[in-house]
Amino acid sequence: MYRYKFFKKLDIQNFFGSIYTHSLAWAIFGDKAIAKKYKGREYDEVFANATDKICQIINFNETNGIVVGPEFTRVISELLLTRIDINLFNKLEAADIKMGNKYKIYRFMDDYFIFTNTIEVTDIIEKILFEELENYNLKLNVNKTQLQTRPFFESDPAIIKLIQHLDIFLNNYPSDETLSNYNKKFNNLWYKLQQNIELIIHQYPKSTSKILNYFLKFVRSLLNIKIHHFNLAYILEIITNIYSLSINYHSTHNLIATFAVLTQKIKYLSNEERENLQVKIEYLEERFFQHLFITLKNNPDRINEMYDLLLYLKTLPKKISSDFLCEILNKNNNYFVFCSVAYYILDETLTTINPGFKTVLKKLILKINIFHLNYKNKGADSEFLEADYFYFLNDFSYYPGFNLNQQKQLKDKLIQSSKDAYQQNATEKSRRINDIFNTITSDSYYNWKKTPDDFIKEIAKKSSNLLNRKRAYN
Predict the structure, then answer these.
(1) What angle do CA 421, 425, 429 make, to 5 degrees?
(2) What is the dihedral sign for C-alpha 237, 243, 247, 253?
(3) What is the distance between the alpha carbons of residues 274 and 14, in angstroms, rounded to a whole number?
(4) Distances 197 to 151, 167, 186 between C-alpha atoms, Å
(5) Which pLDDT score, from 0 to 100, does residue 296 have?
(6) Is-above-0.85 flag for pTM?
(7) pLDDT one-digit tens code per residue, 196-248
(8) Is 317 helix (H, G, I), strand (E, B) or coil?
(9) How many Cβ atoms from other residues are within 10 Å of residue 264's Cβ?
(10) Contact 197, 211 (CB under 8 A)
């Protein structure tokens, strides 16, 4: 892009939350007047109008904002942005501003990357884009606007600085031959790295998540079973300390993937190697447990973003206390947290409860019953139509830790909720609804049968894919 002199980055403010669902029909039809012409019951099944209605239904019948996450909404939002792209291109053409000659624009989701040769063209593009977005009730986030002149500085300065410190760190890293010996200088090297990372985060607080994820990706290549176990335990402490600076769903997966590197290396040791390293392995597994358990215990308000740590902890010999698991259940009503705790207390066969967790099972049953009895609709006409309620009752009606009677009670409640949602007298319509119900409740969406190792492999794969994307550290 060095053929252009100027670069400007623009961003749509609160994109998904600001989308007006009726504007989807405007974009798909290509004109607001045409969209209004084809508005009415007889046109409900037309793609543009059906899209508008579906986006409302899955967001509690709201016309402002669409649900973030599902691929459906990503595709639909792309249709809206494509219409804006076309309008922007046509207006620039009409102004004799030719693409490829006077400008180049790249868009990734709701981010625009504009390259031009003059400030005037940059301003014109921003003005037209501003107007086009306003036509669809969208606005630019002026606080994120960036204008640069050649050479363009596209990388995050925090990551640049981090890479510099990592290079210095590697230049002082001991050779493989000395890793098996305990070395206080080795610990000091890691401690200095931690201090430097904390300093970068202090300087660039908005880049904390990027810094953390980059570090976790980097550190995986250095974890080696050959490292002396005292040094290795210290490294794990450094890793969990840095992770604690930015706990979220993605950083949790990155942390698990990092720990899993060592777990896998231990797993694939030969019998002879395992026997020779047995004391070391037991020591490390104890440290694995301690570091992750302390992280969970010290961040009770972040359990909703850390629950997958329980899946990793399940693979370790030492177990979390029943009191702590009950405490998690007491302080949360999150479906994924409940599933993770429920999965953790299953025995190795995943078919029944570990005898040591009967107290947790009682608490789990109690909390699910309370959840059902006290559930208040969040906008839908029936609790059956709300994801929180549906997934809780459906998936726990298949939970292998519950007996058949407990499973049946949950399924019966779901059936009754379905009947309340669809009170229909027409036999044919009732039959269709019943078929749909049987299909969507035919199994649990949470895979109770998946082994902990498979869960961890899946998490590690997600983490790897995330880190390898172009915008991995956002």
Answers:
(1) 75
(2) negative
(3) 53
(4) 27, 13, 17
(5) 95
(6) no
(7) 999 999 999 988 988 998 999 899 888 888 899 999 999 999 999 999 999 99
(8) coil
(9) 14
(10) yes
